[in-house]
Amino acid sequence: MRAFSRLEALIAPLPNANIDTDQIIPARYLKAVEREGLGLGLFEAMRYDADGQPNPDFVLNRPDYEGTAIIVAGDNFGCGSSREHAPWALLDYGISCVISTSFADIFFNNCFQNGLLPVILTAEEVQQLMNEAKGGSAFVTVDLLSQTVTSPSGATFSFQIDPHRKEKMLKGLDAIGETLQEAPAIDLFEQRQVVNQPWLERA
Length: 203
Hints:
The chain is an alpha/beta fold. It has two domains: 6-172, Aconitase, domain 4, CATH 3.20.19.10; 173-203, no CATH class.
């Protein structure tokens, strides 16, 4: 998993509330077992028209939002069915951080397991970011170490994060990576098991 420490990037507003995981990545993409390529289906119903052509009115299709890596979204982002493909699709597209007033629990947890930082701010702070992002070509800085978001105008907002999750994000550790940190202790335990309970090795 890629580590996250500090990101200065273009921000795009998605003011809709209750953007669910099916809107983030439609169910037909769930057959995929690889993460690469899922960005093509991100927000498919909003990004493309009935003929599969880019919708010029959708924010991420506009030239002044090309290269967006941060989204500021409406309430309850990531609700709906559980699918790890949702953060996969966001990351594959190039989104590394989503800012909102609230997230659905399963999506929120999946973000941390995949290196996508979900940031919770107050309604007033989110609205200010929305307003500043509406003009396009607006850059925001998200600093995980200091737990701050700096708006295009220079306003600074603080956010809370579980210390253990923060450390894992800073180090780029998912559940497997965290376990592998204990590899020497695991190896030692297995060696002792062979000596103390040799019949287990023969089983």
